[in-house]
Amino acid sequence: MKHQIVSRRMHVRERVRSKTSCKTVSTAAVTICLIALAGCSSSSRSSFPALDQVVQITAQTGSPQSHAISGAFGTPLVAMVTSNGLPASGVVVNFTAPTTGPSGTFAPKGSNTATATTDSNGLATSALFTANGKVGIYSVTASAPGAPTPALFDLTNTVGAPASVTVMSGNSQSATVTGSFTSPLQVSVVDSGNNPVSNATVVFTAPATGASGTFANSNTNIAIALTNATGIAVSPILTANGVAGTDTVVAAVSGTTSTANFNLTNMPGPPQTASVISGTSQTAIGGKPFPAPLSLLIVDSLQNPVPGVTVTFAAPTSAESVTFADTDTSTTTATTDATGIATSSTMTANSLAGTFTVKGSATGTTIASFTLTNWPVGSQYYSFYLSGQENLLEGSFVGFYGLAGSVLISPLGDVLAGEQDYSDGFFAVSPQPSGDTITGGSLTLGSSNHQGTLVLDTNNLNVGDSGVETLAVQFVNSNHALIAQYDGSATSSGSLDLQTLPTLSTSNLNGGYAFTLTGLDPVFSPVSYGGVFSIASGGTTLQNGLLDTNDSGIGVPVPGGSLSGTLSIPDSFGRGTITSTLNYDVLLGGPSPVSLNYYLVGPEVIRIIDVDSTGDSAIGTAYGQGTNASAASNASLGSSIFGVEGTVLSTQYGAAGMFSTNSSSGTFTGVADDNELAFGLIVPDQTFGGNYSIANTGYGSLTITPGDLGDVSAFGLYMTDPKLNLLDPNNTTSGTGGALLMDMDALFSGGTGIVIPQTNTASSSFTGQYAMGGQDQNYLTGIEGEFDFVGGMTVTSGTLIGSALVSDPFLTLGPRATDSNVRFYATPLPDPTNAGRFSMLSTNSTPNPLEIKVVGPVQDFDVVMYQASADQFLWLDEDVSSVFLGSLQQLGSFTTVPSAEVNSKTKSTGK
Fold first, then answer.
1. Closest Cα to residue 807, out of 545, 542, 491?
2. Residue range 19-27: mean pLDDT, rounded
3. Contact criterion met (CB below 8 Å) for 686 and 866
């Protein structure tokens, strides 16, 4: 057989050589050769027998080899194909990898099969081959047509680098602080094909601070372990540290960002200590709820809060005490939350007044004590505010100041407690953030006229008479009084109003508000602010404000600025702080925010006072807008009366009048009186007109035709709640509605006022009993001064007879700084042309000025009045040396006025 194969190969070679020789002979020879070859056609029989083709395929390179999973093998797979022992070119070779288990894929299609064609050397090279994610040994076959057996490439997929680490066991354990966790922490490390990786280094790391623990082999928060043959690493035992709480231990392997997280909990130890968190030092009126519940903290021996502990709050079972809402007894229980805090239900003071202790504790703990005070049943909180002039340096210096606060008064007139803020910007400013504390005092009223004094003992020796302030008081009804400072140190006018405070430590402020402030800027120039803003639900965000500014220090009124800020939650006296964009930046050339405090009268009335100690001082009120916060229009303002007054120094003036409106054209007409004391100009009984505009937010303007009313022309106009009485903020049944005014004339910076709807102009309705008040700026003694008065009057058959308390520290009316039983007398004359206007003038055909008798001769004042209704009047003094603006308010019910009443005939006659 071997001989036959060799003979055939030799015969083939001879034929090849014969063909080659034919190609190399001459042309004539070629012809001969071709003729000769013609005899070799198929029609002729070959002189040699046919050959059998033998095809073989073998692996040349690429076997054996190995590579980590998911990686490309480094040596290509090369197969050789031979035919009858010689390299066979152009043969298509099929490479095939297993379809399951360890295997791989060929580029570029990612298939387990690929083809390649042999080259001239009989070699076929596969495309790039990449191991799959399975570890193991396998074969890739290469087959060729006619080859009886395929070539085999022996390949191995090995484990890859660590790709991920996952928790196996030990997660979600808990241990008591300083105790060991029951189970070690175990993780599994695998490669990208999810094959276990052995001998991988795993680092377990507990938190460096807070709740954590230490590992047994290192006594630190870090431990190292190697994975075993199955890819599992086990930490040493972990011991909790002394901090309770949740903590996360992280297991990580170098070379991968994957981590395994164990969520563990260090449980606190047994309860040991109870301590007060909040609720102590509270006060409540007998029968009323306390502002806040009681809260205490339970901790273990390592000061860790202990949750889930039952705490008992126990008040006295007799005498002064409280009743808890959930049990209706003097004892209740509560369970500590996740922070270890237990909070009682709300409490109501019983009817016995005094200070007592409520104890809070749990089994095994110390006792926490809460100190509470019950005020006498029927006691009431009142908010007060005033502004006026100080008589400083024995009259050689006049300064503006504001005073605002809250006071608790018992039914017998005892002042039980209170807070206040006093500010003149220079000499006497209450300390911040505490303000002044009102420690005692008394309210004493006449038994029939509800007129008297409110004495406030404070801890600030710089206010009043060595810390004792005396206010003249004239109650209008149980909820509202006119007041004036009455201790000889200063003089001012303002209001005392029953407070409606939140029952818990929250705020009841919400919605739109209109406001004005008046005072002095840091360079001692008159200033006023006005506008609108809203308070978001929750009562702590002041937003969407529009601000008008008239600052004489700048000289140019600035309308429509933006206003925003925050408010603090009010304390038990309704006192809080306002941080806002209100500032003197333009005036002072740098950031100069105004520090403001506020006192609640109720959810719709906020007294605001500037508490800076940098020379500025201002005070005012924000009133709720109700529907006028979003649905105001020109129609919101109808027939009204108005009054506006300046401050001390360069803007001593006052104006009052009445007008009717045409909402469709935005115009108004009316009659008014103007007394520009600072400029020596009086404009009496003057008809005037102009135009106005009100946006849906209640922010607007009112412009009097220039020259109609002296120098008074431009105003900011800010609509208030139609259901709110601006003079008596607790009154929602009569005299309601209106707006605030701020003078935007540069001459009258600091001027502010009010607009009251005019509903009754009948002179016959001006009858009965009224409270009266006024703030007078004057040059009655040749130097600048002020006097203020509050009192009561009776109007019968057109005759006005009254008695008042007068504060006169500048001695403009007589030799005493304060006087009581000051007589007021007049016969107001109804204006025959302008119903709703009354005059008391020495220039009337029958002179009828307002007579005020302090001591000595009677002093006459030319005064006009404008009637809003039978309940409310504004009056204006228009003398050449004096101007005052004030109100007359009809007396109401006095069923709950607190006081130590005395017979009005035996009251003190003052200093």
1. 491
2. 36
3. no
